[in-house]
Amino acid sequence: MFWYLVHTKPRQEKKAQLNLSYQGFECYLPLLLTEKIKRRELSVVEEPLFPRYLFIQLDSGLDAKSWSPIRSTIGVSRLVRFGLEPAKVNERLIAILKNNEKRFLEAPQELFAEGEKLQITDGPFAGIEAIYQMKDGQARALVLIEFMGRSVKVPLSPTQLKKVS
Predict the structure, then answer these.
(1) By C-alpha distance, which of 103, 151, 97, 100 is closest to 129?
(2) Entry pTM
(3) Distance CA 37, CA 48 (A)
(4) Mean pLDDT over each residue of the chain, to the nearest integer
(5) Which of 1, 15, 63, 102 has CB 3.0 to 4.6 Å from 75, enough for a Cys bridge?
């Protein structure tokens, strides 16, 4: 048995995993928690660690299950290949991912990083650039803005901020 890589349709990793599991294939979809702004509120969501990819364990022996249903499974785009050969994934990589997954699911990946440049999108400071400092204890973001020639810390809702590219 070897691990291979499946390329899924956009945002259908869990659907592909479920449908492949119904067909008797062993799959692995590493997940992580991350902060997102949805409907103007900050929420924590579970996302794939590798968007549009999941791992599948397959046997290549004579009595192996046919691989042909994989491609037509709902949510699956294709089996990743290098030339004509399906892309094998090292078993150690899967073991490392499984060991670290608990850590990915304990603390969410924060929406903004310390020192990141942001723009205020709403409120009295709309349009002003700010530097993200940290979260405060009330689910707000503390940002640093230039105001009247000096730097001032301002608490804002994360929904009032967007990343500057």
Answers:
(1) 151
(2) 0.73
(3) 17
(4) 86
(5) 15
